[in-house]
Specification:
about 550 residues; alpha+beta; ABC transporter involved in vitamin B12 uptake, BtuC; Rossmann fold; 2 domains; four-stranded mixed sheet; 13 strands; about 50% helix
Amino acid sequence: MRKDHVPLIVAALALALLPFVLDVCGLPLRSAIDVVVFAIACMGLNVLVGNTGLVSFGHGAWFGLGAYAAALSQRHWFPGDLILPTLFAMLFTAVTALLSGALILRRRGVYFSLLTLALTALLFAIGYRWTEFTGGESGLGGVTRATVLGVDLEGDWTYYWAVAAIGMAVCYLLWRFHRSPVGSVLVAVRENEERARFVGYPTNRYKLVAFVLSATVVAVAGTLSVFNHRFASAEPLSVAFSGELIAMVVIGGMRSFLGPALGALFFILFREFLSIWTPHWLFWFGLLFVGFIVFSPTGLVGVAGALIAPFRPRVIEAAAMAGRTVVEGVALPPVYRRAAASEAPVLVGDGLVKRFGGIHAVDGVALTVKDRTLHALIGPNGAGKTTAFNLVCGLFPPDSGTITLEGRSIAGLKPESITSAGVGRSFQITNLFAGLTAEENLRLAVQARTPNALRCGPPPRRWPMSPPRRPSSLRSSGSPASNGPRPPRSPTAASGCSIWGSRSRPVRASCCSTSRSPGLPWPSGRVSGRWSKPSPPRFRSCSSSTTSTAYSRSPTT
């Protein structure tokens, strides 16, 4: 049994034992169904919150939308059926999430959260006031369970096992999704979206995939809920219900695969038992939620890990560089090779201008970079060196001027498009994506330049342009194994940009904003222009490791 299959085995055992354990606790079978339904909803929400880092305050809207879509379609179009209303609810919710997500994801941070909050408030007003269509405050009854494939789902026991089977299928699909190339990109977006863009990923597209998938999974939970209670209402569309979903995810552990499902179980037990003693049980649940945020942000999974930690054997590892080995005779991959150097300029910028209000950060800068050459951009602090790099790499569009790469204009393109064209950007403080293993960090850079970057299945054993065996590539680089600890945040001095190949082009050149490093010649090429603030020639330098890191991509090294 592989270690990464453990969550699936735990989920299967939990689904098999759940109704019997709750029966011992004195809870009815429908409470067990509610646990599975809320677990599906929370795991769907966690695709967005825990894996992508987007906090949605209105995900209950998709739960209620799926419930209403299933109930209304069964009443008007598919009477006596269960499968077709469920499929219709999934499709309707996915299309609605695609359209609304394309608009909402234009904003980030708190503005994204507020837009999701506004969406659920809008849908709640429609569901509560459109009495003729949704039933209003009285709700929409008349929902029936049907016979599916000869199995009568009217009995609660039969329906529970059907819901458990669907829950297990959702769990498996999400497990595959999180381990897929798309799943690793979403973790990179959560850790550092800007870096992910400069690796070559269109992050808005990936976030939209996560948004639609999350909404669809939550809608499946809403559909199962409406057939469980045979009733649809506007309550799931309320802001309070969305807050409860967020609380379940946080209390369970949003950085754990099964943590949200544990939070759903905790919520149902807390509600059922505490509501016997006080009608204000939600007040105490809110206090408990605040307590978890303050004292245990990792949720119940983190608490369990802290309790078990003293009983686990401690593994003391040497420093990462201590296990580094040098492998002789490793040839440069053919995709990075070029038969002969070209004398023609590779990257040309002319008349670049960038203003921020009344500040002229860059004014009339020109630069020329030839093939297989090293360049340095030298100037005092605040002269506009970093802004010039930002213009070349696409972080800012130039107000005027031209930037061409091998004759193709790249001025004003997005960073991921410029990266795909062949311009790579490194930063002054470099670090790995801490939420990914060393192998996943390496794979992330390789898969950005392959057609499989949007693959939702498991990663292939061999990527194009990659070495034949992944463990050997890790050994040659001195990196820890894929199942080892996460890489630490180890900033190193680095800045500048490098010109490198796309899928069909080899490496070109590299450049760095630095003064002359010991043992390196003065930069060649042409860099001219007028800076915004003339001052004495005090050079801002970066370490020699910057130049060697950027230049190591060149075939001549």
